[in-house]
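Obj.: predict assembly geometry.
Materials: sequence records (below).
Method: joint structure prediction, all chains together.
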Amino acid sequence: MIKLHDQYFKPFISEAQILTAVQELADKIALDYKDETPIFVGVLNGAFMFVADFLKAYQHPCEVSFVKMSSYGGLTSTGIVETLLDVSENIEGRSVIILEDIIDTGRTLQELIHMFSNINVKEFKIASLFYKSEIYNGEYAIDYVGIEIPDKFIVGYGLDYNELGRNLKEVYQLNHKHMINLVLFGKPGAGKGTQAEFLKEKYNLKHISTGDLFRYNMKNDTDLGKLAKSYIDKGDLVPDEVTIKMLEDAVDSNPDASGFIFDGFPRTTAQAEALDKFLSTKEMRINATIALEANDEILIQRLLERGKVSGRSDDQDESKIRNRFDEYNQKTAPLKDFYGAQGKFHSVNGIGAIDEITMRLGKVIEEL
Ligand code: AMP
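Observations (raw structure tokens):
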């Protein structure tokens, strides 16, 4: 195990496996191009090591050049691809083979293809040492692939995490065992959302609020939003299968998070069971469920006040609020026992100043 900046990484692909894949790529490409002199174009920075080993494995006439692009800031793709260095050789009429270290969403590739689209090359091929087929947008066929990998954040052999790790001879993957995953538990108005905002900054966690996700979908009038609206308007819970799927998608779209705060999920035993099962397929788990406790009369006052500002219809009507409490008592409260049986249930007094409550929560988290 190694540590780069704030994250832990464990060995994933050995040096020998990498070099074998590089040799196989070189052999495959040689079959197609050994009778001419192709230009290999390495994509900096990540591909420098791959290009060096590839050229040593490709023992036929060839030229090499580089372009430089960047799309990653930290652990998740920012989606913005910058071209920092353009290809300078005269490549008109030549066969160009791009050497990429990794293809994931395909955004960098798109930019590359755009870059070469005005040049009249003889052939344009893409070779990538690593390839995340699960998340690739599929817009352009990848001609030569070294190793297909699942959607995990990797470092080493040229690839970095905020510039560290490029000099590792083997490839490492993010180790989820060091993640902290928390469930913030409590009745509507208990302050889960407010506290999550502070905790996510303090502990570098991704905050997933199912209520916020539903509201986002309702605002944008998506199919999911339309479906959820009828339940939310009455203060009823949205059906499990819908909510579970939405939650899983939210987790999946953050493969590099160093941990999650689940806010407003799970709210039923079926959801809690589904969450455990889903996380275990990813070698992840819930570390703690922390309940913010406050009595109903205080919560009703808080929600009615919030309703005046937020405009949330489910916060403006006392009967809807009481219905949400009923839903909580019937369906959500049993989760105390569910998590209690796993030794993960913690209770915190939710009445007091916001920063005081953050401190109480922090105390529980730091003792984990
Ligand atoms: P919240 O913002 O967490 O109070 O959620 C607002 C509303 O969204 C709830 O009253 C439910 O109708 C719906 N909702 C949020 N999370 C869930 C969940 N885990 N299961 C079912 N419904 C949910």
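Conclusions so far: The longest strand covers residues 63-73.
To do: check interface contacts against the pulldown list.
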